[in-house]
């Protein structure tokens, strides 16, 4: 899980600054009022956290799957 976090940090450092709010290029954002923008900021943060959590869980599942596949192949004498 730490490799994914480190890769994300490196990826974020390489990205140029975006001028679009929340990284969205949507015309409707120009019509959002201050209250809606504050709420969007909170929602956007939660969405990004959930994406990172899902990526970490997927990475962990892949590691477990690969260990099991190696074990299965060794049991079948296919190493």
In short:
The protein is mainly α and 79 residues long.
Structural class: mainly alpha
Strand content is: under 5%
> What series of H and E elements makes up the topology?
HH
Specify the helix fraction band. 55-70%
Radius of gyration: 20 Å
Number of helices: 2
User: How far apart are the first and last residues' alpha carbons, in Å?
Assistant: 27 Å
**How many individual β-strands?**
0
The low-confidence parts are none
Please outline the major beta sheet. Answer: none
Task: Name the overall outline.
Answer: elongated
> For the residues shown, what is the average pLDDT?
85
Model description:
It is elongated, with a radius of gyration of 20 Å. With 79 residues, the protein is mainly alpha-helical. It has helices at 2-14, 34-75.
Task: Give the topology.
Layout: H1 2-14, H2 34-75
Characteristics:
70% helix; 0% strand; elongated; single chain; mainly alpha; 79 residues
């Amino acid at each position: 899980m730490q490799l994914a976090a480190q890769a994300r940090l490196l990826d974020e450092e390489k990205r140029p600054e975006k001028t679009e709010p929340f990284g969205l290029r949507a015309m409707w954002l120009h019509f959002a009022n201050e209250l809606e923008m504050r709420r969007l900021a909170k929602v956007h943060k939660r969405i990004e956290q959930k994406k990172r959590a899902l990526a970490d869980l997927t990475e962990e599942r892949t590691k477990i799957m690969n260990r099991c596949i190696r074990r299965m192949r060794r049991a079948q004498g296919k190493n």
